[in-house]
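so ive been stuck on this for like two days lol. basically i have the seq below and the ligand is flavin mononucleotide, smiles is in there too. i just want the complex predicted, nothing fancy, no docking runs or whatever. if the output looks off dont worry ill sanity check it later, just need somthing to start from for the group meeting slides
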Amino acid sequence: MEVFDCVRRRRTVREYKPDQIPEELVLKLLQAGRWSPSSSNSQPWHFIAIQDPETIKRLGEIATQGTFMANAPLIMAIVIAADSVRPQLDAGRALQQMELVGWSEGLGTCFVGVRQAEQQKAVKELLGIPEEMELITLMPYGYRVPGARGRGIPRKPMAEIAHRDRFGQPFQE
Ligand SMILES: Cc1cc2nc3c(=O)[nH]c(=O)nc-3n(C[C@H](O)[C@H](O)[C@H](O)COP(=O)(O)O)c2cc1C
């Protein structure tokens, strides 16, 4: 799939086919994250590929912002080292690469925030993540259900968010 097509067509997906994701594709997602750029090439990330059904079910119970995760065949936890200078940026670059590569292979995913302190603690305990590390997100992956539509959330008009030469001079399409 052409890169811009992938970027333009990608939607957050919260419904997945039950089919397992082949090992080569799980590895490809990990490679997409691994080859992401990072601040000073620090590569502060850890990715946990979770396919154990009991663990997946439990994660869906803990993360109330993403209960649909319980129906995914794979969850990628993205964890950043405590000494990372720009944890959100580094993680964001990596997870977006993984999401786009996944999309190009027929997969869908959704960023699930684990925002509350007790949820963070419960997920870290379940997955054995050292306490000092930052759990950025849990990303469920599965094959997209044909015909299923995302929420179709539109984007702001170009002229509202893009400027030509100076802030406040709208970039007209
Ligand atoms: C930082 C971030 C946090 C998000 N957290 C959640 C979440 O906890 N649960 C959820 O269902 N979707 C979550 N989303 C998905 C957004 O709702 C979604 O990306 C947005 O509505 C745009 O839709 P689209 O991805 O289909 O273009 C999150 C997205 C981002 C980038």
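Helices lie at 3-9, 23-34, 53-62, 87-104, 117-127, 158-161. The chain is about 35% helix and 15% strand.
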